[in-house]
Amino acid sequence: MAWIYLSLAVVFEIVFALGASASHGFTKLKVSLITVVGVVGGIYFISLALKTLDVGVGYPIWTGAGAVGTVIFGALIFKEKITPAKVFCFIAIIGGVVGLKSLAGV
Fold this sequence. Notes:
mainly alpha
């Protein structure tokens, strides 16, 4: 169940990050409310996941997967450029996430 909670926390983290950008400094009420839901949901679900997972595994996966998702959706929604350097960096993040997940049972 911890991995499901962690996955939900990642989704909320991505919503938070994208919402923070789209809210224009919390000047757009609807988007600002979505952003707040994103941050609260993310913290709630990561806290549930960390009941079982080590914080040294769960937190980096949460932030890493959230960062990769934010880059991808930022490109799709906001037309941000995905440069070769960004691709290299998020491949490194994904490698770290996979590595941490494989160590979760150790």
